[in-house]
Amino acid sequence: MIRTLARILLAAAFVLAAATPDLASAQSRTPELTGSWVPMGGGRGLDPKLAPPPATPMLLKAPYAKAYNDQRAADAERTKRGEPPASDAVHCRPYGFPRMMAVASYPVEILQSPRQVTMITEAFSEVRRIYLGETQMPIEDVPPGYYGHSVGRWEGDTLIVDTVGIKEAVPGYNGMPHSAQMRITERIRLVAPDVLHDQITIEDPVVLEKPMTYTLAYRKLADYKMVEFICENNREYVDEQGKVRMKLGAKP
Predict the structure, then answer these.
(1) How many angstroms separate the most distant Cα atoms in the chain?
(2) CATH number reported for the structural domain that contains residue 46 in this entry
(3) Nearest to 136, CA basis, from 185, 188, 208
(4) Which residues are paired to 189 by β-bridges?
């Protein structure tokens, strides 16, 4: 009787193993993104297969296009006069998503686990969290913030990320204005063992005539340890005319 019961249990275990995916095996097939990655451009000598493709046009609806172009022109004039625009860097404000993903040549650290992918930038020490295997919240239910609410899923070797809830005060790609309806979709994948692409598509039915897409490329930094970057800029300020000034004699 005991032997018969043991055989039944053993047979049931084999059936269950055949019907249930091998989680360990599935995880082993997931690309490993953990590490530090530095933004890379399409410089001379770069393999064209690894270079990011050009961005699609940013087609803003009126009056957003006029306001955007006027602001860009005003910023250019300030730069010519040696007066840097009143940027987030001057105000010590976070860049927010998606701009945080490429700030000059500062690295981005990725920490990967089965339920979450965490991205930490060296510039301003900004953090965003991508929750895996979850359903995205309705846009109206997401408290607006600098990084929004991101959920992701793996499709083969590509991490698909959906982000909503970026507050309107946070400038978008290249300072692009946006509404509360903006949705950002990322397709993140390794195009080589040490090269990562993040294809970013921005949709906004209020501001954009049609979605726009651009791609960021990163090179992996071996054994790199992220350093602390805290904004402590107390030498520059914005006066009542919106001009950036420097405090003379200010102590560091």
Answers:
(1) 93
(2) 2.40.128.20
(3) 185
(4) 197
63 is a domain residue: yes
Is 20 among the domain residues? no
CB 117 within 8 A of CB 132: yes
Half-sphere exposure in the Cβ direction for 41 (13 Å, CA): 6
- The position carrying tokens 């060296």 is 122
In this structure, are residues 95 and 231 in contact, taking their beta carbons and an 8 Å threshold?
no
pLDDT digits (tens, 9 = 90+) for 164-184: 999 999 999 999 999 999 999
196 is a domain residue: yes
30 lies in a domain? no
**Domain count of the fold of the chain:** 1
Residue 212: exposure state from Cβ atoms within 10 A (0-12, 13-18, ≥19): buried
Q: Is the pTM of this model over 0.70?
A: yes
Measured between alpha carbons, how far is residue 214 from residues 17, 67, 83, 197 in Å?
Answer: 43, 22, 29, 10
pLDDT beyond 80 at 10: no
Print the domain residue range for 101: 35-246
